[in-house]
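Re: weekly structure request thread

Next one in the queue (337 aa):
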Amino acid sequence: MSTRVPTAGTKRRRSRAGEVLTLLGRRALVGVPATAAITAAVFWLASLAPFNPLALYMGTQYEHATPEARAQLVDRLGLNDAWYAIWGRWASGALRGDWGISRLFGQPVAQVVSERLPYTALLVGLGLMVAIALSVLLAAGAARRPGSPVDVLGLGLVHLAQAIPPFVLGLVAIAVFAIGLGLPAGGASSGGADPTPAGLALHLVLPVGVLAVTLLPWLVLNLRASLLEALESDAVLAARGRGLGESTVMRSHVLPVALLPFITVLGSRLGELVTGALLIEAVFSWPGLASATVSSATAGDFPLLAAVTALTCAAVFAGSALADACYLLLDPRVGDV
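Done, posted below.
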């Protein structure tokens, strides 16, 4: 019986896979305790906030309740406990899948999250895809002819988008495209009807467009710099010397090299994507997690706020780790750091 000897390529792939697993393990060792610490900070800040948690919990019934009934409810809910004890109960329940009850929505937090998470994922995913496509087109057009009118106009639009706050851009979009052209200005459906695929697509036009524009500045500027560096490389000069056309050089030799650091940029800027989605959902009344975060913060719904915070932190840490892992897999020159 013959024994297959691993080839050099197989050994390299196994080594690279081991480096990726090591990277992900290291990031998990940082991300998990960091996420737990951030959720603990939410409950600590809640203990310092000038909210009356019992009044927020009872709503209009608070004024009509007797002092004895209030005291009994405070003891039953554990509102007089230290913030770290309240956080400990929430964290232990979250590990078992019980994230508590949302006081704002009157539902289990897990149900609120499961109902709203698909809307946020849809908005963020489409906004990021549109932003990536536009950034590649703008950056490639600008980098091919630095200093040309296309480059100057593209950079001017990018810097203008960078200077306008997302909520202002959203209000401008509503004024121009919703009031002026009749596009839906908010929500996921019209007249309280159940969302349909066609209705969702129409209601997504403005929030996705505004979110994509808010992401363009750092995407275009980073990709343009990478493209300019790749265009000056020896490999590109050799390709041009072989008589290849500019479009072929850009497609086969420049973009693959420039998109590698672009992947890391995407992972490192996920926090801004989350922040942008938060503002966009609030402006367009999109029924996602970001708008629930704003409502839970203003209403003192800290179980929901802590759960959304934990999910956001986990998404940012996971996105950054996966981006670096992809970079590690795609570029053999990079080692695990």
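The longest strand covers residues 101-102. The chain has two domains: 8-102, 108-286.
Next request, please.
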